[in-house]
């Protein structure tokens, strides 16, 4: 049992108020999201919408959902839906988030919230004008491990922060027409994996970070690898990398004057955190025992959203909309420094 590291809060997703969910775009991530809600929460998934009624019906049958809609317009117009989970490819997030917001629905938008800062700001502005709740589905922010890290930082356990690191890299076969490599689909490592490492940096150091980036491009002109040096006003720095052409350890670390935290791999789905003192001696370890591994823990973000809506909030206190937009700005700044093509450009 952990004796120095804190105990995570909000570990039971079933204690959240119940909302009625509609699923926009029944793909792989939507399948896992609904499965996690059914297994671990009392949230109600009441409708699903697709451009294909047959596809929506198939998804509804698999998950026991009452209503299937053959268009996104019909889904967001469903009066029995409180919140829309936007699970379409990120190149379509703006269109679909704005559609749901215009219908007066709360939205949980898969990450990245949008491929460009301008598109992200339009979503945020629309949600604020409509008075609906909007949140990017940065699911790692709501997992128990993140609350352990948050409390450890806020308590001063690490002292003044000095260095943050994170890497996320894998090898995606070169397919010019895939969402990873096609600029028309907002491809590239930064928008696919970089959002995780950039959000880790802002989680720890805040979003007032200066960006310096280097990388390499894929033959299609999108970034295949990016290394970012992020500098804060307090002189703490983050070194983060994202790659779609090299497998990396997928670890993260926070070092301060009094010690460091090391998060086990993969850091976005970690089940362990180790705390070392300033001399490098292992002092304590925390292990996740809640048995919601990998995408089974998507339930935590849904439960958090339900709590926030019930409290009358319109954005997440753990991952606010201004920070969400700032992460997209950082990724876009890095893309420009690397020389990658603009998202949405012709291949």
What would your notes on this structure say?
A hairpin with a 5-residue loop joins strand 8 (210-217) and strand 9. This protein is globular. The longest helix has 18 residues, at 321-338. The strands form two sheets. It has an eight-stranded mixed β-sheet, with helices on one face. The chain has a six-stranded parallel β-sheet with strand order 3-2-1-4-5-6, sandwiched between helices. Helix 4 (93-102) runs parallel beside helix 5 (117-130) and helix 5 packs antiparallel against helix 9 (321-338). It has helices at 28-40, 53-63, 72-76, 93-102, 117-130, 144-154, 189-205, 299-310, 321-338; strands at 20-24, 44-49, 67-69, 83-86, 106-109, 134-136, 161-169, 210-217, 223-231, 237-243, 252-256, 259-263, 272-277, 282-287. The protein has nine helices and 14 strands.
Number of strands: 14
Number of helices: 9
Oligomer type: single chain
Rounded to the nearest angstrom, the distance between the terminal CA atoms is 53 Å
Main sheet summary: 8 strands, mixed
Strand content: 15-25%
Instruction: Write the element-wise H/E pattern from the N-terminal end onward.
Output: EHEHEHEHEHEHEHEEEEEEEHH
Q: Overall 3D geometry?
A: globular
Q: What is the structural class? A: alpha/beta
Could you report the average pLDDT, rounded to the nearest whole number? 96
Helix fraction by DSSP (H/I, runs of at least 4)? 25-40%
Low-confidence stretches: none
Strand order in space, largest sheet: 8-9-10-7-11-12-13-14
If you compute it from the alpha carbons, what radius of gyration comes out, rounded to the nearest whole angstrom?
20 Å
């Amino acid at each position: 049992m952990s004796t120095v590291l804190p105990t995570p809060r909000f570990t039971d997703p079933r204690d959240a108020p119940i909302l009625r969910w509609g699923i926009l775009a029944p793909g792989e991530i939507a399948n896992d999201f609904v499965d996690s809600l059914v297994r671990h929460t009392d949230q109600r998934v009441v409708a699903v919408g697709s451009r294909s009624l047959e596809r929506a019906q198939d998804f509804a049958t698999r998950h026991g959902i009452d209503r299937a809609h053959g268009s996104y317009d019909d889904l967001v117009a469903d009066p029995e839906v409180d919140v829309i989970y936007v699970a379409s490819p990120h190149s379509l997030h703006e269109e679909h988030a704005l559609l749901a917001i215009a219908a007066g629905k709360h939205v949980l938008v898969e990450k990245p919230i949008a491929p460009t800062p301008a598109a992200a700001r339009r979503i945020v502005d629309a949600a604020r004008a409509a008075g609906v709740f909007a949140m990017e589905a940065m699911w790692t922010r709501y997992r128990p491990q993140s609350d352990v890290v948050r409390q450890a930082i806020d308590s001063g356990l690490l002292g003044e922060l000095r260095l943050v690191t994170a890497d996320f890299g894998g090898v995606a076969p070169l397919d010019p027409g895939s969402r990873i490599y096609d600029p028309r689909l907002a491809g590239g490592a930064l928008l696919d994996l970089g959002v995780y490492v950039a959000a880790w940096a802002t989680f720890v150091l805040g979003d007032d970070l200066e960006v310096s980036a280097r990388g390499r491009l894929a033959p299609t002109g999108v970034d295949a690898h990016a290394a970012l040096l992020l500098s804060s006003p307090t002189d703490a720095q983050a070194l983060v990398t994202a790659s779609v052409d090299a497998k990396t350890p997928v670890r993260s670390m926070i070092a301060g004057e009094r010690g460091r935290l090391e998060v086990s791999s993969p850091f976005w789905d970690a089940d362990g955190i180790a705390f070392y003192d300033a001399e490098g001696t292992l002092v304590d370890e925390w292990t996740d025992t809640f048995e919601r591994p990998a995408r089974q823990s998507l339930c935590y973000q849904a439960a958090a959203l339900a709590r926030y809506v019930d409290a009358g909030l319109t954005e997440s206190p753990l991952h606010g909309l201004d920070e969400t937009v700032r992460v997209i700005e950082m990724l876009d700044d890095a893309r420009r420094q690397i020389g990658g093509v603009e998202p949405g450009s012709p291949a």
